[in-house]
């Protein structure tokens, strides 16, 4: 089930990527609900996803290194 939460979080983030504030809010929710290793995977996905969305680059600070 935990894996499903990661996939759900990615889906939600894709859908709200048009609005930076909403994206940040959903990203914070995802980080608070996911396991640490899933957060690491989400960070890798996010780095790849935002390559063509420079307005979302600042959102990386919401994922702890």
Describe this protein's structure:
- The chain is mostly helical and 65 residues long.
- It has one domain (2-62).
- It has three helices and no strands.
- The chain is globular.
- The protein starts with a helix and ends in a 16-residue tail after the last helix.
- 12% of the residues are buried.
- The model has no long low-confidence stretch (mean pLDDT 92).
**Helicity range:** 55-70%
The secondary-structure class comes to mainly alpha
- Rg, nearest Å: 11 Å
Count of folded domains: 1
Instruction: Please write the string of helix (H) and strand (E) elements.
Output: HHH
The total beta strand count reads 0
Low-confidence stretches: none
Helix count from the secondary structure assignment = 3
* Content of β-strand: under 5%
Q: What's the main sheet like?
A: none
In angstroms, what separates the terminal alpha carbons? 24 Å
Global shape: globular
On the 0-100 scale, what is the average pLDDT?
A: 92
Features:
single chain; 65 residues; mainly alpha
Task: Give a short summary of the structure.
Helices cover 65% and strands 0% of the residues. The protein is an all-alpha fold and 65 residues long.
Topology:
Elements: H1 2-15, H2 20-33, H3 36-49
Helix pairs in contact: 1-2, 1-3
């Amino acid at each position: 089930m935990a894996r499903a939460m990661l996939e759900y979080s990615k889906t939600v983030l894709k859908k709200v990527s048009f609005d930076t504030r909403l994206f940040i809010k959903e990203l914070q929710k995802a980080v608070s609900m996911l396991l640490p290793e899933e957060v690491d995977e989400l960070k890798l996905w996010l780095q790849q996803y935002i390559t063509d969305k420079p307005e979302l680059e600042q959102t990386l600070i919401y994922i702890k290194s």
